[in-house]
Amino acid sequence: MSVTEFNLPTRLIFGEGTFARLGDEAAKFGRRAMIVSGQKTMRRLGLLDKAADMLESAGLEVILFDKVEPNPRASTIDQGAAIARGEKIDVVIALGGGSAMDASKGVALASAGDKSIWHYITTRDNPPGKVPSLIMVPTVSASGSEVNSAAVITNWTTHQKSVVSRSSLLPKIAIVDPELTSSLPLAPTLAGGVDIFCHAVEPYITASHPEPLNDGWREAMLRTVVKYLPIVKADLRNREARRALAWASTMACSSFASLGGGDGSMTLHGIEHPLSGLYDIPHGEGLVALLPAWLADLSRERADRICLLGERVFGASDGQKAVEDWLKNIGMRLRLENLGVSKDRFSDLARLAKVSSPWIKNNPTPLEQEDIERIYRMAW
């Protein structure tokens, strides 16, 4: 049977209005802070200036690095790392969605050495210096990067989108304020919700040794997303829905999700990464397009788990159809064709999936080159 280890050293501060605590919390880790954020949105919303003001009021010197793009690139992270290294940054603060949080981890790690972040992705090396402390302030309910040690980074030269994980990248603090998600537009809100759903459903379906208690955690997360995503679609400022989705986002990709035993692997994420790595499409939308095809492929080996998904999450006998109907009802039944993906690139995408996401070997059905290409065709 599988072995479960639980370690969640990140201090989680959750609730409306907790953003106001950023300055006091950051001051516990030093006097020189870098805010890592996106290129436009955080400044337009006034959150970047507000964060800087709170930090300065708490006595910190603040450096802003707001060049992070969606699907953050290694070259951008290296720029931020060089600044953080030169400025002797004590604490790196992510303000934004998964891209900002992943970039902040990359900046912190690479700033402790003199090599590119890609070096640390492709080797087991650790930088010789001290990695700055990390504080995560998510403004999107999606990735759950605020409570784990992983970062997903794209090499735009090779179009590889790969994961780096080190214990030094576990955030010291995550400030999860659901109010910060209320200004998020509809499209990224829905795509983020499907990302949360996939974080829970992928290990749920692929588990070779499922456990009842672990199933219960994941089913609760799935039911939360299924219930509240349509509510927030109808009213983007619905506080109850935003709060519920924020909780689901944080828990679905944390160590908490593995409590109760069980196993499973994020193989759908593995075959999506090349899509956003090559086409620079939003990660959540890529998952939306692939999810029904991935379930259909797995129905050969995991029909019982897909049936259980239907019964316990949707109250339906056909889990695959229930997922598709739900996607249609929230206006997210996308196809790869809708996202501008060319059928001519399926071979390249499948090759990148095998190189960038080696964990897909844990899929219950084979995911060799031809298998991955078939799933892309089904999703087109």
Automatic annotation (TrEMBL):
<dbReference type="InterPro" id="IPR018211">
    <property type="entry name" value="ADH_Fe_CS"/>
</dbReference>
<feature type="domain" description="Alcohol dehydrogenase iron-type/glycerol dehydrogenase GldA">
    <location>
        <begin position="9"/>
        <end position="178"/>
    </location>
</feature>
<dbReference type="Pfam" id="PF25137">
    <property type="entry name" value="ADH_Fe_C"/>
</dbReference>
<dbReference type="GO" id="GO:1990362">
    <property type="term" value="F:butanol dehydrogenase (NAD+) activity"/>
</dbReference>
<dbReference type="InterPro" id="IPR001670">
    <property type="entry name" value="ADH_Fe/GldA"/>
</dbReference>
<dbReference type="GO" id="GO:0008106">
    <property type="term" value="F:alcohol dehydrogenase (NADP+) activity"/>
</dbReference>
<dbReference type="InterPro" id="IPR056798">
    <property type="entry name" value="ADH_Fe_C"/>
</dbReference>
<dbReference type="Pfam" id="PF00465">
    <property type="entry name" value="Fe-ADH"/>
</dbReference>
<protein>
    <submittedName>
        <fullName>Alcohol dehydrogenase</fullName>
    </submittedName>
</protein>
<feature type="domain" description="Fe-containing alcohol dehydrogenase-like C-terminal">
    <location>
        <begin position="189"/>
        <end position="380"/>
    </location>
</feature>
<dbReference type="GO" id="GO:0046872">
    <property type="term" value="F:metal ion binding"/>
</dbReference>
<dbReference type="GO" id="GO:1990002">
    <property type="term" value="F:methylglyoxal reductase (NADPH) (acetol producing) activity"/>
</dbReference>
<dbReference type="InterPro" id="IPR044731">
    <property type="entry name" value="BDH-like"/>
</dbReference>
<keyword id="KW-0560">Oxidoreductase</keyword>
<dbReference type="GO" id="GO:0005829">
    <property type="term" value="C:cytosol"/>
</dbReference>
